[in-house]
Design goal:
Order of helices and strands: HEEHEHEHEHEEH
Number of strands: 7
Number of helices: 6
Distance between the termini: 19 Å
Structural class: alpha/beta
């Protein structure tokens, strides 16, 4: 089995999968065609990331120092992923939910770049928890929940139903489930 990793536009990954150029992809939960099957890998919180001093208690919900108040942050510049990425779709869904017409200061193809732009104070960014965990302790940024009840998404391993899945592929998916759910490999 060969494993290649790449952070790409979700729609491009789905197209590559449908055309048989990829066997399994990991993407955020979404509506899938009947030709595709999936296994849930893990669920994670979507977070707002900001550099030091960008968000004070005055921009958080009263009584919640780590939960933003959308009425108080809607004027901030946002770093977002380019259209077609799962993270961008989630951001747009959140903006609609809270009636925010965002000031988009920067578009990128990478959650890591969006996080770094937020860390530098250029903008704030909404990114998946896994992106934050990659840099926690190594970089200086602040994270905030998007609501009192955390906003989450599920990450799926998606495959073509008609394609044969060998034992290695099935085990790879099981290992991913255990690792990302903090259950270890064994």
């Amino acid at each position: 089995m060969e494993v290649q990793t790449a952070e790409q536009n979700t729609q491009q990954l789905l197209d590559e999968l449908r055309h048989g150029r990829l066997d399994v992809i990991f993407i955020p939960e979404r509506a899938l065609g009947p030709e595709l099957g999936y296994e849930e890998i893990y669920e994670e919180e979507f977070l707002l990331v900001a550099g030091d001093g960008m968000i004070g208690k005055d921009r958080c919900l009263d009584g919640y120092s780590s939960v933003i108040d959308w009425k108080r942050v809607k004027d901030l510049p946002f770093a977002v992923l380019k259209k077609g990425h799962g993270s961008r779709e989630k951001c747009e869904e959140i903006f609609r939910r809270y009636a925010v017409n965002p000031v988009i200061a920067f578009e990128t193809s990478s959650n890591l770049t969006a996080l770094r732009m937020a860390e530098a104070g250029f903008a704030v960014a909404m990114v998946p928890e896994m992106t934050v965990r990659l840099f926690q302790g190594a970089r200086r940024f602040n994270t905030y929940s998007l609501d009192k009840v955390p906003i989450t998404w599920k990450v799926l391993a998606v495959y073509r139903k008609e394609a044969y899945q060998n034992l290695a592929q099935k085990e790879f998916i099981k290992i991913a489930q255990r690792v990302f759910n903090n259950k270890g490999v064994i």
